[in-house]
């Protein structure tokens, strides 16, 4: 699979006008599919002729699909505490698909025939390869490991370059395919920027600040889902008191 420039992004519905939208193409036995993204989230699947095959609605958080429109029918996602999709239901509330996984995400049982890309930790699954697309890397649930080295593993002194969430999949998820140390570095840099902005006397809208903090926290594979409670309250307090975290 390769990413391509968003030359067809006008075919995506009006909810996907983010400047960071991009496309990913996948040649497969059933023909070429093009996947359109709004930021980090898949929002539409398009066939080779440019016709929409499926559209996806999600929350503002990463990897939280809410609904799928496919073949003129809407289905709704139901996830467990880790974020893995456990079932899909129809508009009438009837269960259409169900999924069971082992501790590392291998599908052990399923029911229903509705096509659905989001399964373990709500990441995109490829039925032809059996792999999950974790953005920076691909994940093999059968082996319980990522297929390529962590991008910063050598620099950070890691000893296992392929482990998934430090072999603790019952407690953690990894939406970016990066190690906890990688994400912690991103968090630290973002925090430094926020601190410096406040010291310089600049004000950040509390809504934007809340979005930044909650999104970054969700990217950390060494933390449990759902997001830490109190992020919104913390952001509101910071905005009111004009203090740093």
Summarize this entry quickly.
The protein is an alpha+beta fold and 245 residues long.
What does the model show?
This protein has 245 residues and is of the alpha+beta class. It is 20% helix and 31% strand. It contains 4 helices and 14 strands. The strands form 2 sheets. Strands 1-2-3-4-5-6-7-8-9-10 form a 10-stranded antiparallel β-sheet, with no helix packed on it. A 4-stranded antiparallel β-sheet has the order 11-12-13-14, with no helix packed on it. Strand 7 and strand 8 form a beta hairpin.
Note the main attributes of this structure.
245 residues; alpha+beta; 20% helix
Topology:
Elements lengths: L1 E3 L17 E7 L2 E8 L2 E6 L5 E7 L6 E6 L2 E7 L5 E6 L4 E7 L5 E5 L12 E3 L4 E4 L2 E4 L4 E2 L6 H4 L23 H20 L6 H14 L11 H11 L4
Antiparallel strand pairs: 1-2, 2-3, 3-4, 4-5, 5-6, 6-7, 7-8, 8-9, 9-10, 11-12, 12-13, 13-14
Helix pairs in contact: 3-4
Q: Indicate the low-confidence ranges by residue numbers.
A: 1-21, 224-235, 237-245
Helix content: 10-25%
In total, the number of strands is: 14
**Counting H and I runs of at least 4 residues, what is the number of helices?**
4
SSE order in H/E notation?
EEEEEEEEEEEEEEHHHH
What kind of sheet is the major sheet?
A: 10 strands, antiparallel
How widely separated are the two ends? 40 Å
Radius of gyration, rounded? 19 Å
> Structural class of the secondary structure composition?
alpha+beta
Spatial order of the strands forming the largest sheet: 1-2-3-4-5-6-7-8-9-10
Fraction of residues in β-strands: 25-35%
Q: What general outline do the C-alpha atoms trace? A: globular
Average pLDDT, all residues: 75
